[in-house]
């Protein structure tokens, strides 16, 4: 077997396995009640679920691009359902990632109005719209002539209208939806958030300095304690904002770096796999793997960059082990009785 294919298979196995494990750990965090009550936390939860589904759909294409025979011989499953699922979930991921940036921007720019706009209920409504529109947009993949060609790849040449739509019309539209529109929005929202948080720090710093020594000399202990609690609460809010800003910034940078190469490639080659061309097949496999990194690397980047995220993850794991331990102890006691 070609060493390049062996390397691709090894790297791909690592990427997809690590991605699925990371998404599982992220799911443990984002399903917490206190996070689901916040619009940003719910958006990250929905993004994590969609990322996982998309990662699973990419595995089928990855396996098919490496092997000389088709593991999934069904046209309806591989050429229609899998391609539809890939593109639908990718579009939903793009929309959710963009919405996360907009959500944090609104919270930093319009703190009062964001209480009405940025709610879990609105997130669910928006997500349903995203899902329905994405599913309908790529429904053309279920065309009955979207089947395997003579080289064992999914092809669209059996119908001229389908071929024109899939190879020439939809790739630029998908590129606009997935890259051209979301990327500038993410960058602008992140820059504005950074500016707003910088202003918040400047406002809090003078207040903290002003509430220092004079209060200790002139105010009764109870009032001093209340003032200290307010300052501490303000610092906690800023720390949470910084953590969320960091997560959003990491999400934006990772999205841009990983999604642009494969989607630019897809504009030229469309959705069709390379016909009996080893070079294009290898290029597609590696770009597909690089694109897949985004859908499973979030957990590892968040843990590496945010101490608060690591603390929450460790706490969650400890609580799960303690809950399992106590449940096992109670069951054992019940049996003995």
Automatic annotation (TrEMBL):
Protein name: G-protein coupled receptors family 1 profile domain-containing protein
Entry keyword annotation includes Methyltransferase: no
Major subcellular location class: membrane
GO molecular function: G protein-coupled peptide receptor activity
Presence of keyword RNA-binding: no
Coiled-coil region list: none
Pfam family, any one: 7tm_1
Domain G-protein coupled receptors family 1 profile: 22-302
Compartments reported by the entry: Cell membrane
Record-annotated membrane-spanning stretches: 6-30, 42-69, 81-102, 123-141, 173-195, 243-271, 283-303
Domain of life per record: Eukaryota
Protein's organism: Rotaria socialis
BP terms from Gene Ontology: neuropeptide signaling pathway
Xref: InterPro entries: GPCR_Rhodpsn, GPCR_Rhodpsn_7TM
Entry keyword set: Cell membrane, G-protein coupled receptor, Membrane, Receptor, Transducer, Transmembrane, Transmembrane helix
GO CC, one annotated term: plasma membrane
Protein's membrane topology: Multi-pass membrane protein
PANTHER family: G-PROTEIN COUPLED RECEPTOR
